[in-house]
Structures are given as C-alpha cells and as structure tokens.
Design a protein that fits this description.
With 154 residues, this protein is an alpha+beta fold. The protein has a domain of 99 residues: GMP Synthetase, Chain A, domain 3. Strands 1-2-3-4 form a 4-stranded mixed sheet. A hairpin with a 5-residue loop joins strand 1 and strand 2. Helix 2 crosses helix 3.
Length: 154
C-alpha cells in the first residue's frame, strides 16, 4: 500500500470518528429538551393509532397549548367516528406526555387531516378538536413531573 493511500485512509477514519463524537454530543443535548419529549410522543401516537404522519408542537399564543397534527388515509369515517378518534388521541396525549412543564398547557389541540383518492383525484378533509384544561396525571414519586409552578399557583 502506498504512503498517500495510507494517509487518505487515516484521514478518512479520523474524520468519521470526529463526526461520530459530534453526533453523540448533539444527541445528548437534544435528549433533555421538550422537543425530544414531543418527538417521542409523536412516535407513540403514530405507533398506537397507525396514522400516516404525526407531529406535535407547542403553541404559546393566545394560550399555552400542545398541538397534535396527524394524517390518515383510506376510508373516510363518519363525523362521529372522527370525533371519537380525536378524543382518543387527546386522551392518549394527556396520559403519555411526560414533561415537567406539562401542567402549563391549558389546551390540547388535535388537528385531523384525511386524504382519500389517488394521483390528481385526491380529496383532503380536515377536522379539529380542542380539549380545554386537560386532566394531567398527578406526578408520581421519581417521575420528571415534579412540583412545577403554574400561573394560578406560583
């Protein structure tokens, strides 16, 4: 093996090692943020309800709200079935969102988007549901949802 080929291989190995270290550092910083908790919640909702796509966001105006957006495909259910599905998603969100600031959220907003058809002949139907003053579970000993100041009880 020539000297220049060995130098290129060593430089490539060092570059890959440096990239791995940088990725691990950025991942460890991301794991402690509320965005990481919302990402985990999105994956849990997607796995539980088998939706095409799920996203969660934090909305601060006009009230502090946790927003869940999801997309479904296939047969268009009735309005009653859609309402039950969105209520189930809101209840699942309240039960499984584990963040120390969850009691600051005054609403859980669920946005449902249904796409039916194929190609140029697709139809999109949207529906919303808002759960006001969600019944967040009481923090348990050892959980991350400890004593958090709320606007009513600082």
């Amino acid at each position: 093996m020539s000297k220049s080929l060995l130098t290129i291989a060593v430089m490539g190995f060092l570059c890959v090692a440096l990239m791995v270290v940088a990725m691990l550092a950025s991942l460890s910083m991301f794991q402690g943020t509320p965005a990481a908790e919302r990402t985990k919640l999105s994956l849990q909702i997607q796995n539980e309800f088998k939706f095409a796509a799920v996203g969660t966001h934090q909305i601060e105006m006009p009230v502090m709200a946790l927003q869940v957006r999801y997309e479904t495909r296939g047969r268009l259910p009735t309005l009653e079935e859609q309402q039950k599905e969105m209520e189930a998603v809101a209840a699942f969100t309240v039960k499984h969102y584990d963040n120390e600031n969850r009691r600051l959220f005054r609403e859980v907003r669920v946005f449902r988007r249904h796409v039916s058809g194929r190609g140029c002949w697709t139809n999109t139907y949207e529906n919303t549901y808002t759960l006001k003053d969600p019944p967040w579970p009481k923090p348990t000993r050892g959980s991350r949802g400890g004593a958090v100041p709320t606007p009513e009880n600082p």
